[in-house]
Amino acid sequence: MKLLILGGTRFVGRYLVTAALARRHEVTLFNRGKHSSAALTGIETIYGDRNSDLAKLQGRRWDAVVDTSGYLPRAVRALAEVLSDSVDAYAFISSLSVYADFSVVGMDETSFVAGLASEQLDKANAIDSSGQASAVTYGEMYGGLKALCEQAAEEVLPNRVLIIRPGLIVGPEDYTDRFTYWVVRVARGGEVLALGRPRRSVQFIDVRDLAEWTVRMIEHQETGVYNANGLPDNLTMGAVLEECKTVTDSDASLTWVSDDFLLQEKVSPWSEMPLWLPEEAAPQVKGFMFINCNKAVGAGLSFRPSSDTIKDTLAWHETNRLNEELQAGIDTGKEQRLLRKWYEHIDYLEGV
């Protein structure tokens, strides 16, 4: 197959390229050249901005396009229109954030998606006129924007669109560090501030499992919507951290502190404490780690052992980013202060 991949130099895009090349497909990248693709061989790169340089794609032919960077509906619509006669299929990497109500446990692809008021859409368009910002840029509008992007692609290319909705994507090359924080922190050893309760369920997917499966889906000319995440109720936070200890041969000791304490101390869920969503204090998110992915599993999505993800994530970090500050997770000083305060809190409760 001939594949056109938007982006292709970082994380998901990079592993899509790797998976496609491993299966002997011909790959063309379209990106702005802001991140090096020197390590990727056997590929062509067309340099351009999706908001202003789509004419560079005209007059070419690919079997499918994979859009990893569509955040604004107008940008997705414009790309689909330009490629409508140039590709057979449009694979859009969306997000589980499209769903409207995360208080529901077990949501599947038929669940309601979020919407946006026209004023919100205008605001999103004004934030970044290039359409190249990150998910963080759009804040609470992100899910609604992704849902509208899905609709835009399907409206232009009916029955030719494959929509993949991943959850938390982890593994080597993850520049967000949301999973990497735990691997690195446990490997460092000592007393680790652990969030909430050990038996809390977590869901994530290794970027390589996502990429390899997506390429196979394109090969099979699949269309429609698929949730792509780890199996719900299959992993707990305690199991993940214990696996981190085993894989990294760490002497870390885990001190589990309550949700109430973390919230009282104004610890930020997800950013300072990655993978932590305090569902009792915020019941509107209790279903976020229980997304139904049966449809994707039935279509061949499989998962490598979490130990492999942990091992490879640590190896990547130690090789490429050992001296860089992590983009997520609590800093060491605050962690130590909170641990001291937690013991004071426990002593107080025991004395009451």
Structure characteristics:
two-stranded parallel sheet, 352 residues, seven-stranded parallel beta sheet, 38% helix, Rossmann fold, 2 domains, alpha/beta
| N- to C-terminal distance | 69 Å
> Do you know the CATH topology of the largest domain?
Rossmann fold
Overall pLDDT confidence? 92
The count of domains is 2
**Which radius of gyration do the C-alpha atoms yield?**
21 Å
Task: Note the main sheet.
Answer: 7 strands, parallel
- Name of the CATH class of the largest domain: Alpha Beta
Number of DSSP E strands: 13
Kindly name the structural category.
alpha/beta
**Spans of 5+ residues with little confidence (pLDDT < 50)?**
none
CATH superfamily of the largest domain, please? NAD(P)-binding Rossmann-like Domain
Strand order of the largest sheet: 3-2-1-4-5-6-11
Task: Walk me through the structure.
With 352 residues, this protein is α/β, with parallel strands linked by helices. The protein folds into two domains: 166 residues, NAD(P)-binding Rossmann-like Domain (Rossmann fold, 3-Layer(aba) Sandwich); 135 residues, no CATH class. It has twelve helices and 13 strands. A seven-stranded parallel sheet has the order 3-2-1-4-5-6-11, with helices on both faces. A two-stranded parallel ribbon has the order 7-10. The chain has a two-stranded parallel ribbon with strand order 8-13. Helix 1 links the parallel strand 1 and strand 2. Helix 1 crosses helix 7, helix 6 packs across helix 8 and helix 6 crosses helix 11. The longest helix has 20 residues. It is globular. 43% of the residues are buried. The model has no long low-confidence stretch (mean pLDDT 92).
